[in-house]
UniProtKB/TrEMBL annotation:
PANTHER family found in the cross-reference section: DNA-BINDING TRANSCRIPTIONAL ACTIVATOR DEVR_DOSR (PTHR44688:SF16)
Organismal lineage: Bacteria, Pseudomonadati, Pseudomonadota, Betaproteobacteria, Burkholderiales
Keyword set includes tRNA processing: no
Keywords tagged on the record: DNA-binding, Transcription, Transcription regulation
One example of a Gene Ontology biological process annotation: regulation of DNA-templated transcription
Domain Response regulatory positions: 3-118
Record-linked InterPro entries: CheY-like_superfamily (IPR011006), Sig_transdc_resp-reg_C-effctor (IPR016032), Sig_transdc_resp-reg_receiver (IPR001789), Tscrpt_reg_LuxR_C (IPR000792), WH-like_DNA-bd_sf (IPR036388)
A matching Pfam family: GerE
Top-level taxonomic group: Bacteria
PROSITE patterns for the chain: HTH_LUXR_2, RESPONSE_REGULATORY
Domain (HTH luxR-type) ranges: 134-199
GO MF term (any one): DNA binding
Name by which UniProt lists this protein: Response regulator transcription factor
UniProt organism field: Comamonas antarctica
C-alpha cells in the first residue's frame, strides 16, 4: 500500500484530504509542521509528499530544498496550497515538484496527481534497485573484466580490446562471458540494454 505523507498546518485540510486519500486506498500520515515529518523514522515504502506551501517555521519551498540533505526522507512532492503565486509555482516545479495544486481542488484531480506521483516513485525505486544490482555485480568483477565491460559499453570490438589490454581475443571472450554471467544476461544486446536502463553506463567502470 502506497503512503501519502500530508504536511499541512490546517487541521480541516488534513482531516478532509486524509479521509479522501484513505478512501482511495492509500495509507496516510499527517503532520502539522514540516519538522514532524523528519522526526519519524524514514520508511522504505512507495509514496509521495503532499506539501503545503505555507507552513509555520520552515515554509514548503525551503523544506523541499532541505530534503535534498536527507535522501532517506525524499519522496515525489505535490504542493497543495490555497495561496499560490507564479514565482512560487515556478520555483517549486524547477526544484523537482511533481505537481502544484491550488485549493480548492476537486477530489479526482488530487487523486490523479497522487497516483502519478506514486507511480513515479515506483519507477524511481525500481531503477535504483536495478542500478544497485548492476553496480554490485560490477564490483565483483576483476580489473580486466571491468575494462572489458567499459570497452563493450563504448562499442569496441573484441579484437580492439585484445590489442589495448595485451591479451588474446579468446581471453576477451572469456572475460565478456564472465561479465554477462555476473549481470545475469544472455546476450550483448541484453547487457547494453541493462546498463542503459540502470543508467550505470556513464563515466566508465574501471
Amino acid at each position: 500500500m502506497a503512503v501519502v505523507h500530508l504536511i499541512n498546518s490546517d487541521e480541516h485540510t488534513r482531516c478532509a484530504t486524509g479521509s479522501l486519500l484513505a478512501a482511495a486506498g492509500y495509507k496516510v500520515h499527517t503532520y502539522a509542521v514540516a519538522g514532524d515529518y523528519l522526526v519519524m523514522e524514514p520508511d522504505n515504502e512507495v509514496g509521495c509528499l503532499l506539501l503545503s506551501l505555507h507552513l509555520p517555521g520552515v515554509n514548503g519551498l525551503k523544506f523541499q530544498a532541505a530534503l535534498r540533505r536527507y535522501p532517506a526522507y525524499e519522496r515525489p512532492i505535490i504542493f497543495l496550497t490555497a495561496n499560490a503565486d507564479v514565482a512560487s509555482t515556478v520555483q517549486a516545479m524547477q526544484a523537482g515538484a511533481r505537481d502544484f495544486l491550488t485549493e480548492p481542488v476537486d477530489g479526482e484531480t488530487l487523486l490523479a496527481a497522487v497516483r502519478a506521483a506514486v507511480e513515479h516513485d515506483q519507477r524511481r525505486r525500481a531503477n535504483q534497485a536495478l542500478c544497485d544490482f548492476v553496480r554490485s555485480s560490477i564490483a565483483a568483477l576483476s580489473e580486466r573484466e571491468r575494462k572489458v565491460l567499459d570497452g563493450i559499453a563504448q562499442g569496441r570490438l573484441n579484437k580492439q580490446l585484445a590489442v589495448e589490454l595485451g591479451v588474446s581475443e579468446r581471453t576477451i571472450k572469456a572475460d565478456r562471458s564472465q561479465v554477462m554471467h555476473r549481470l545475469g544476461v544472455r546476450s550483448l544486446a541484453e547487457m547494453v540494454k541493462l546498463l542503459i536502463e540502470a543508467r550505470c553506463d556513464r563515466g566508465g567502470f574501471s
